[in-house]
Amino acid sequence: MKTIGFIGGGRITRIFLHAFENAGITFEKIIVYDVNQQLLEKLKTHYRNVFTASEINQVANSEFLIIAIHPPAMMEVLNQIRDMVTTDSVVLSLAPKFNIEKIQGILKGINNLARMNPSASTIVNRGVNPVSFSSTFDPAKKSELLEMAKHLGYTPEINDNLIEAYAVITAMGHTYFNFQLPKLKELAVSFGIDEAEAGKAISIMLWDTTITLFSSGMTFQDVDDLVPVKPMKEVEETIKGYYDKFLGEIYQKIKPA
User: Fold this and answer.
1) Closest by alpha carbon to 64, among 106, 14, 29?
2) What's the pTM value of the predicted model, to 2 decimals?
3) What confidence tens digit (pLDDT) does each residue in 186-195 have?
């Protein structure tokens, strides 16, 4: 694809631009539109090959258009660009709550429409980036998009009605551990383990734990029984209750009506 445009210059656009740079993915032109001029200036400071747009029509007709905004702004933006995108445009929405059917109902005649919900680790090309496609998506353009996306991490092609489920489990998943892992490292260092070694050992432990839990063929209970001492046992049920409550609530909030 020759040109790529972003509507929205916030966090997720920065993640994509960084990942493209890491992977050596280049375009003839990258252009970003946002109503917040400070965000655009920040992008230009960090990514010198990025052009910025002061008007949405300067980006809406890009060959590959990424809509990187929050759901509350989606209806306004879709109505703004509905007469600007063409049947040949490739449009990728990163917003939950607005499924393909709803977006196509507004962007009349759009054929090449996809949705993705990337995760924070996409910034280091290790993201979980599930993607769904409209039934009218051109096969050649679809292959092109998937080829690009594979450099950003794991990109399973899924049914559109699962995007919000992945959003809760993978896109938000980092936040369930981001406060725990630094604490574990802090404790390791306080117990006398070298800081670099602590980070390495914890990383390996976490990866190997997932392999043991999900790929060993053992039941979760059998895996749990491999370790006789469980310091957090008395709070496990409480923590699992928090998962049920808070993840269930956010899923109900972001899933399409």
Assistant:
1) 29
2) 0.92
3) 999 999 999 9
